[in-house]
Amino acid sequence: xxxxxxxxxxxxxxxxxxxxxxxxxxxxxxxxxxxxxxxxxxxxxxxxxxxxxxxxxxxxxxxxxxxxxxxxxxxxxxxxxxxxxxxxxxxxxxxxxxxxxxxxxxxxxxxxxxxxxxxxxxxxxxxxxxxxxxxxxxxxxxxxxxxxxxxxxxxxxxxxxxxxxxxxxxxxxxxxxxxxxxxxxxxxxxxxxxxxxxxxxxxxxxxxxxxxxxxxxxxxxxxxxxxxxxxxxxxxxxxxxxxxxxxxxxxxxxxxxxxxxxxxxxxxxxxxxxxxxxxxxxxxxxxxxxxxxxxxxxxxxxxxxxxxxxxxxxxxxxxxxxxxxxxxxxxxxxxxxxxxxxxxxxxxxxxxxxxxxxxxxxxxxxxxxxxxxxxxxxxxxxxxxxxxxxxxxxxxxxxxxxxxxxxxxxxxxxxxxxxxxxxxxxxxxxxxxxxxxxxxxxxxxxxxxxxxxxxxxx
Length: 458
Description:
458 residues; 18% strand; six-stranded parallel β-sheet; 18 helices; globular; alpha/beta; Rossmann fold; single chain
């Protein structure tokens, strides 16, 4: 296919060429991959300013997206890609292959660094989904940090640079400029831009931005960060968001309230911190969806109201494919039992065949988990017009990335995103948090504390 770059794609490519380390903060659907590959091709074969290029990506993206993009565009088909995936033996063999780009999944970054150490051979490194390196305590970040001085160019790609707040920016930016703009340590970054919030003893659970911190942070990184939104550049078909309230039967309502009280009552006179809030909200969201795991990992059934609503949605689709996102394994099992036509997106080569089948309207009902389907999947070529969130989540990044698998450049019709929200449950608070584009952890803690207060007053 002939590549006819949009103005913003030309701009992104030029910025990569002109800047040795850069973050392309391009929203989903703006073609980050082809813009980057176009720049890499020029660096390799026109400017001779790169020789060995490493791409670090989520597993499914490493398996499929980069190779598929080079094969898709005429001007990139000469690029040779070696996939550093699979067993250690297979990875070592791939590293020795004659190629232009070597693509590895982010889970194997630590292994790759241990293989080469100070003999690091890649002068140019692309970090696809830069935000996945947001945790400075993670092994992948620490490994890449050790070999960062050996890199001549670093290109970071993401549509969600700070999914949980500005604290997430330090580590990704460090991998670009080694601390030149936001500080050499996360501690110095916190001290400069944040104040300590809630704490337990010496442990701080929350950091609050200082006045004008956001403006100062973005100003500090503005010369190495290119930020664009799809709505500013693309005329996409409309995305319509709908919330469908799901009334519960009196019996299901009683069960939910009983289990909610049992979960929350022990915390009425004690602090709820992030780890307990996550557990509590998870249990409440499970119950809202119709089932919950008990202490023996058995499934306690509560209601089928969401399954009934999903059946109505599928019928109303009039034969058009429907995409459904789930978050809990028992939701997966219950949907599979109710709808035999459902297909789960598989891993590896089988998953690539699923993508092809979906885009050719051969799968009537596709079931996805947002964590495994969030990055790099192009699912917009089907005639699907309806995306359903069966379970509700707190993560803004996962929500945005998942919805963008269908509502992205190339889609030819409006997309309706439907959220099934059990009435008077924590479902509603999760959806409201996403609508406010609130930080997931802060929102779930606030929601859990609010429900504890409510239980205490009853």
